[in-house]
Amino acid sequence: MLTSYAAHFDTPAGYLDFARFGPPSRDAVTATARAMEDSARADHTTVDGLMRAEALARDTAARLAGTDSRHTVLLPNASTGLFHAALGIREGVVLAPCSDFPANHYPWRRTADLGRATPRWLAPVPGGGVTPELVRAALADDVVALSVSAVDFRTGFRADLAALREAIGPDRLLIVDAIQAFGVTAMDWDAADVVVAGGQKWLRAGWATGFAALSDRALESLEPVLTGWTGVEDVGLFDGAEHPPAADARRWSITNLSPVTAAAFAAALDLVERHTVTAIEAAIATRIAELTETVEEHGGRVLSPTAPAHRAGILSFTMPDHDPSVVAKALHAEGVTPTVRADSLRLSPHASTPPEASERVAAALSSLGNRIRHWGTEPTSAR
Predict the structure, then answer these.
(1) Is 17 helix (H, G, I), strand (E, B) or coil?
(2) In DSSP terms, which residues pair with 194 in a beta bridge?
């Protein structure tokens, strides 16, 4: 466990659901409370003072993404960034995995409805992800972009962004949803043209936080369809005229964001930058290895990649002959919080997760037989 990082959190030891939501640090909670308290005592300096948090969060996100503030914009969530990217492509085919999270599907479905970009769905092999070989096989002259998750939400498969960039070539756009990776997985973000992430999961900033980082290629080729009044040149000039979109990533701004959530985002990003992505990733890898060993020792079938190059902070598994809902009940009894799916379970630890978490999982899986006898029988769906 990364002790210096863990000291900032009060998350229970058995919480293993960071791929769904990351409980924020005391730093983020304090920043939120302070911003609200300041807003409650408003005077002529309050709004401008609160708005400084946005620039602080943007600049830190930019450094972590390996870029600068000119190429970075804060957003309220990852979906907003994906819709900006999708609607910005005038025409052509976009490759996207059919197994991806629904948030990565709907932007492309909507562009198709509008007669703009059309999705062509990729079908990764079970347990796999989007590989260069899969992409090369689907490439055609009409393909203008590839949209992919940096880390697959189901299995934790880590995409090789540099290899995907090489596969699609320099002239097509690489659009990356980084929500399951950013801040906890070192990746080649500069290989992508668009990187979007929400802050409510691994960044542990709370809801309504996020950002996008855009390459020069993206700024040049993506039409700024959703530019709002805060995304234009001369944003402070209220002359009744339509102003041109900003030349930089600000063109993806629709309106002012909450300075309260920006303060929380800035605090969360600062923790990541101070403790480093490399150290956080190493701590998570240790917990994943322990949890994988625990699940396999108790007869579980791991669905996530085992090769380090393709493994991130997600461990998906099944317990043969046991319905996931029953396994979840046993885990809950030991104070463990997993993600429960109809066909599997998902454990996702963080750098603050102690070794005790694996012990709790072991106790839960060891008790399955006894618990089933106590409960009487498993649900019919387990048969």
Answers:
(1) strand
(2) 175, 214
For 199, 249, 280, the CA distances from 296, given in Å and listed in that order, are 32, 46, 25
Per residue in 72-114, pLDDT tens?
Answer: 999 999 999 999 999 999 999 999 999 999 999 999 999 999 9
Query: Are the C-beta atoms of 60 and 270 separated by less than 8 Å?
Result: yes
Count of CB atoms situated within 10 Å of the CB of 360: 20
How far does the chain reach from its first CA to its final CA, in angstroms? 39
DSSP 112-137: HHTTS-EEEEE-PPTT----HHHHHH
Whole-prediction pTM value?
0.94
The residues near 191 (Cβ < 8 Å, ≥ 6 apart) are 161, 162, 164, 165, 174
Q: In this structure, what DSSP letter does residue 173 have?
A: E
Question: How would residue 240 be classed by pLDDT, with cut points 50, 70 and 90?
Answer: very high
Distances (CA, A) of 227 to 51, 96, 166, 256: 20, 25, 31, 12
Task: Return the C-alpha torsion angle 277, 283, 285, 291, nearest 10.
Answer: -150
- At 246, the amino acid letter reads A
Return the sign of the alpha-carbon dihedral for residues 34, 39, 40, 45: positive
d(CA 106, CA 147): 12
